[in-house]
Amino acid sequence: MTPLARYFESGISPKSHSLGLEVEHFILNKETGMPMDYELTAQLLEYLAPVYDKVIKEEGRIIALDSENVLITLEPGCQLELSFRNTSDIGKIRSWYIEAMGPIYHFVDEHGYAIAYSGGLPTVPVDDVVRIPKRRYELMEKWFEHAGTRGKEMMKGTAAVHVSIDYDSEADFVKKYVVANYLPILLIMKEGKTTISCFAIRSGKIRIRQGPGICRILLTRISDSKRMENGWSRCRSSSCMTGSSSFRSEACRVPRRPKNTDGPMR
User: Fold this and answer.
1) Which of 12, 20, 10 is nearest to 167 (CA)?
2) For residue 63, what are the contacts with CB-CB under 8 A and spacing of at least 6?
3) What is the 3-state secondary structure (H, E, C) of 38-58?
4) Bridge-partner residues for 215, per DSSP?
5) Band of the pLDDT at 202, cuts 50, 70, 90?
């Protein structure tokens, strides 16, 4: 058995019908389009903390919240990530998402911000985004100053959906991996576009990295009352970047660029 085959075999799980979901969100100012900074995001986490079992801090700064079903963490550009316990019941994941997002919607709206379901930061250059004060991200940012060309955009300018899928045998792995690779074709046939950008095998799970479209498929919009208002509009032909793959998405909502602001709307 080759090392690669041995690695895949080590990931076999009896929970072959379960999946895990991670959803990343931009929180953008309704007037300027700037992402919410760390200080205000920390206030959001403090606001949410009473209903979570564990508050996680680094050097005295709050960086995550954990509970039985939901983990909230921050990406380098203050993207808010919600991760959900793996389960075979998609309905449970939807319920957990709606429950977790309720108070988040309330807080961000009260402070003049809104959640943007977009795979790429649609409003400002990534160089305008201040990285959160986390040591690991500091080292990553320094590394990308000299390595590659899109590292900073990946860190601070993307917000994806990750789906992790278990498998219980080699045959099950092959079947699911083949289906995962056919998904872009099926979505193109159904929607005329695809939001899937890449596949990976991590920790013995098939991981699918996608743009915001899958979030609409699995979770649906929360309600019409959650639609963005106060100068926000639908971007029906927005070209956003997720990692190194571009996609076009009618689900991308971006704020209108304020007047007297240089630079094109991405």
Assistant:
1) 12
2) 45, 56, 57, 73, 74, 132, 134
3) HHHHHHHHHHHHHHCCEEEEE
4) none
5) low
**Cα 140 to Cα 155: distance, rounded to the nearest angstrom:** 8
Six-digit token string for 228:
């963005």
The mean pLDDT of 103-125, rounded to a whole number, is 93
Distance CA 68, CA 89 (A): 16
Phi, psi of 208 (to 5 degrees): -115, 120
Compare 265 and 193 and report the one with higher pLDDT: 193
Residue 212, pLDDT above cutoff 60? no
- Close Cβ partners of 58 (under 8 Å, ≥ 6 residues apart): 134, 135
Specify the length of the chain in residues: 266
Tokens representing 191 are 């929607």
> Is residue 3 helix, strand or coil?
helix
**Overall average pLDDT of the 88-115 stretch:** 95
Contact at 8 Å (CB) between 134 and 63?
Answer: yes
Which single residue is written with the structure tokens 């990530």?
81
Whether residue 206 is predicted with pLDDT greater than 90 in this model: the reply is no
DSSP state of 37: P
CA gap 125, 228 in Å, rounded = 22
pLDDT tens digits, 227-246:
333 333 333 223 332 222 22
Residue 170, both tokens: 């080699």
Q: For residue 88, give both structure tokens.
A: 């075979």
| Least confidently predicted of 76-80, 89-93, 195-199 | 195-199
